[in-house]
Structure formats: C-alpha cells, structure tokens
Design brief:
Blueprint (H helix, E strand, L loop, with lengths): L2 E7 L3 H12 L1 H8 L2 E8 L3 H8 L4 E2 L3 H6 L5 E4 L5 H12 L4 E3 L2 H18 L3 E2 L10 H8 L5 E7 L2 H13 L3 H10 L8 H4 L2 H15 L9 E2 L7 H9 L2 E12 L2 E12 L11 E8 L3 E8 L3 H17 L31 E10 L5 H11 L4 E7 L8 E7 L2 E2 H12 L9 E5 L3
Parallel strand pairs: 1-2, 1-4, 2-3, 4-5, 5-6, 8-10, 10-17
Antiparallel strand pairs: 7-9, 7-11, 9-10, 11-12, 13-15, 13-16, 13-17, 14-15
This protein binds NADPH dihydro-nicotinamide-adenine-dinucleotide phosphate and L-homoserine.
The site of L-homoserine has 11 residues, from α8.
Length: 435
C-alpha cells in the first residue's frame, strides 16, 4: 500500500481533531483514497505538549518551515492560524510544489489572491474548505455543485462563536461575557476573540464566499463589518416580542450596479429556517437563478467538524495527484483570467428595513419629532410603539420598524434623532432581512 505522508503544522484544536479523525477512520479513508495516510512530521509552539498528544514516533520540528522542507512530508497541513507564520508556510509549500491544506480564513481572505496565483504558477495546490463554515462543504458546493447557476445572493451564519453567544444570551439569559467564556472553553473562538465578536471572522469568510459566488477577486477590506458587542439583552428581547430573532448574518447580494458584502446583527423572522440555527451551528442560504434556494447547515467550528473539512480537502488533493492544472476546478470557481471587476457597493447604497430603538424622556411631542425627522429623510414607518420603562433606567423606549430604506437616509435620520434634547441615549439600529 502506498503511503501519503503529512506535515502537521499546529497541534491545537483543529490539528488534534485532524489527527484523531485520521486515526479513527484510517481504514475508511484508505478505502476512499487507495493510500495509507500517516502524519510523519509536526510542529507546535510547545513541543512537549505536542509530543504528549502525538506519541513518540512522529518527528517534531521547532521551525514550521522545517516541516515543509522535511523530505518525508508530501502534503502540508497548515493549522497554526494567524497570518505571518501561516503565510510563510504556505509560500514555502508552494515553492516546493507541495500541496497544502489550510483552515485559515484570515490568510485566505487577506492573501488568497496572491497565493492562488503563485500556486498556479508552481503547479501546487492550496485547499481551504475548512476556512469557511467549518464542517459544511460550502466551498465545494459553490465551486462544483452550483456551477450551472448565476448566483444571486448568499446569506449565512458563518461564525459559530457569535451564534453560540447569541443563542446562550437568548435561551439562558447569560451575559455576553459568560457566553463568550463558554465559547472559548469549547474551542470555537479564534485565539483573538475580537475577530469573532466584531464580525471580522464572518467578514473574511464572506469575502471568500463572494469571490467564489460571483467570480470576483477576494476583497475582504470591502466587507462592511458590525459585530455583536453593542447588542443588549433588551434588544434581543424586544426583537423577540415582535416575532424576530437576532443573528449575526453575513450577506452578499448581486445588484444591478455591483455586489453587496456586509456582516451585521440582523433581525430575522422567528419562523424562518435560519432563525432556528442555534449554538455553534452555521447555516448558509444560497440563491441561484436555476436551482432557487439551497440551504447548508452544520457545525461551523470545533475540532472534529473542522477536521472533517480538512480531511475532505486532503482526500481531494491525493486524488488530484498527476491531474493537469487545467483539468482542476479553478480556485475562484471561474477561470482566473475571466474574473469580473464589477465593484463592491458602499454600505450607503444598501437598502434594508430597520428596527430602531430610541430611549427618550417621556414628554409630549417626542414621538412627533422622531416621526417628523424620519419623514423628512423619506423613511417610511411600518410600526411605532412605546415600550414602558422596566424601572432600571430613566426614560422610555420607542421601538420603530421601518419599511425598506436606503442606508444613507436612515443614517442621516439617526444623527438628527440623536441630537434631540429628549433623546437620552444613542439610538439603536438593527437591520432586518426576510427570506
Ligand atoms: P489553536 O490556537 O487551538 O492551535 C494553534 C496551533 O498552532 C497550536 O498547536 C499552537 O501551538 C500552534 N502554533 C501557533 N503559532 C505557532 C508558531 N508560530 N509556530 C509553531 N506552532 C504554532 O487554533 P485552532 O486549532 O483553533 O485554529 C487553527 C486554524 O484553524 C486557524 O486558522 C483557525 O482560524 C482555523 N479554524 C478553527 C476552527 C475552530 O473551530 N477552532 C474552525 C475553522 C477554522 P501550541 O499548541 O504550542 O500553542
Ligand atoms: N472562530 C470561528 C467561529 C471558528 O467561531 O466560527 C470557525 O471558523
């Protein structure tokens, strides 16, 4: 039996998951590939800890680049995270024409365009299924399964940590901080959780999805990102009272004059499928012109779900040995010389219905002033309701649901409302999506 020898760079949550699943499903995977897969070399920062986990036979290197250069390594698995070391590892693998599998969305979002170009020149492969939506095979679906379609939109819950936090806050009344600590303990969060809670991780994944959906370069810097740190339990409850759940959605849409790419907390009707996606689960809703709507659901984070995607890539890479580059699925799902330069739209050009909450002193004329400002900006009100104070704060909350409104108009209106004497706190605005 021929062997494929892996270099495992990173023996953390995902690295361990990969090692465990490869060992447990050795026979099954061997029947699929025709090869025995072994980890022959590895690295981590703490080599003693890695040795304790990996056992005595695997060669450990201090320098990740020595794993890449190790002559007993055929395929590199990059699972260190971050951008600096990971980028050197992938560039070195490409230079040596060794295929590399990565779960690193930060790296692909920031440097994917260059790395794919380099890989194409050297005839190497960079596989990244695990970088988006953990165990859900969304990259494969977009690049292969939906290839007949003109994709119209993709909307998803792409970050397990924030979905877990929002679910725990809603269902168990946990504070944001307690729910975040639980997510970190369970291995869902990035080493710097700011990436999760500020929407950056979801934004990086969205940029990759948009590139594959529309055949455009990856443009992570053009994603509008708003996280969940400003979200209060009060708004989650108010949304619930009006029949909505709050989810951190990553949305990309084809519009006549460009593409939208945005991540923000979003009110979704409680009876739509995405509203019931709880915990660290992810879901991706893709709308194509031929297929209509398709929905992908599964674990978006965690050791073994992510390992499932890493190993799926590994199996693909093994199967692609000897296949000419021109016969392989292109990185962006579109031929690299046929990428589109249609622009990403500014957030100001987006149109959404909105939930607004304005805390005001309970005095006459306030409602009329707010309604007047909204009317001035052409913002049409669907519902306006006063919620009584629970006694823990001064003032009352005015909750407003608007009809679909241009982002610029609502921004102007909110600025004016905030400046009213009777408004006692910065108004809250959450966008609404219905599916
Ligand atoms: P961890 O922090 O759990 O593990 C990182 C591993 O890399 C550790 O073994 C660490 O060493 C090692 N490492 C870090 N820096 C270096 C370095 N400079 N040199 C050598 N080794 C280094 O991360 P995860 O496993 O959670 O994530 C890995 C990648 O997978 C990231 O890109 C992440 O975004 C992605 N990902 C993670 C998911 C998850 O659910 N956790 C899901 C999908 C993708 P040591 O053990 O000594 O600290
Ligand atoms: N921190 C990420 C999440 C890991 O919570 O979804 C998966 O990419």
């Amino acid at each position: 039996m021929n062997k494929v020898r892996l270099g495992l760079i990173g023996v953390g949550t995902v690295g361990r998951g990969v090692f465990d699943v490869l060992n447990r499903n050795r026979e099954e995977i061997c029947r699929r590939t025709g090869y025995e897969i072994v980890v022959s070399a590895a690295t981590a920062r703490d080599l003693k800890k890695a040795r304790g986990f990996l056992g005595p036979t695997i060669k450990l290197h201090e320098d990740p680049l020595d794993v890449v250069r190790d002559e007993n390594v055929d395929i590199v698995i990059e699972l260190v995270g971050g951008v600096t070391t990971a980028r050197s590892v992938i560039e070195a693998s490409i230079a040596l024409a060794k295929p590399v599998v990565t779960a690193n969305k930060a790296l692909i979002a920031e440097h994917g365009n260059e790395l794919f170009a380099l890989a194409k020149i050297s005839g190497s492969i960079v596989a990244f299924e695990a970088a988006v939506a953990g165990g859900i095979p969304i990259i494969k679906s977009l690049r292969e399964g939906l290839t007949a379609n003109r994709i119209q939109s993709v909307a998803g819950i792409l970050n397990g940590t924030t979905n877990f936090i929002l679910s725990e806050m809603r269902a168990r009344g946990l504070s944001f901080q307690d729910a975040l600590s639980d997510a970190q303990r369970l291995g869902y969060a990035e080493s710097d959780p700011t990436f999760d809670i500020e929407g950056i991780d979801a934004g990086q994944k969205l940029a990759i999805i948009a590139a594959l959906s529309f055949g455009i370069p990856i443009q992570a810097e053009r994603v509008y990102c708003e996280g969940i740190t400003q979200l209060t339990e009060g708004d989650i409850r108010a949304a619930e009272d009006f029949g909505y759940r709050v989810k951190l959605l990553a949305i990309t849409k084809r519009r006549a004059n460009g593409f939208e790419m945005r991540v923000h907390p979003t009110l979704v009707p409680h009876d739509c499928v995405i509203a019931s996606v709880d915990g660290a689960m992810n879901a991706v809703l893709v709308r194509g012109d031929a297929v209509g709507e398709t929905l992908y659901y599964g674990a978006g984070a965690g050791a073994e779900p992510t390992a499932s995607a890493v190993i799926a890539d590994l199996v693909d890479v093994i199967r692609l040995q000897g296949v000419a580059a021109c016969a392989q699925v292109p990185y962006f799902a579109f031929q690299t010389d046929r990428l589109s330069d249609v622009p990403i739209l500014d957030m100001g050009e987006v149109e959404c219905s909105c939930y607004l909450r304005v805390r005001v002193r309970d005095e006459s004329g306030v409602l009329a002033n707010i309604a007047g400002i909204l009317a001035e900006q052409g913002v049409s009100i669907e519902v306006m309701r006063q919620r009584e104070s629970n006694g823990s704060h001064a003032g009352v909350d005015i909750v407003i649901f608007t009809h679909k409104t241009n982002e610029r108009s609502i921004n102007h209106a909110l600025k004016k409302i905030d400046a009213l004497d009777s408004v006692v706190e910065k108004p809250v605005r959450l966008r609404i999506e219905t599916f």
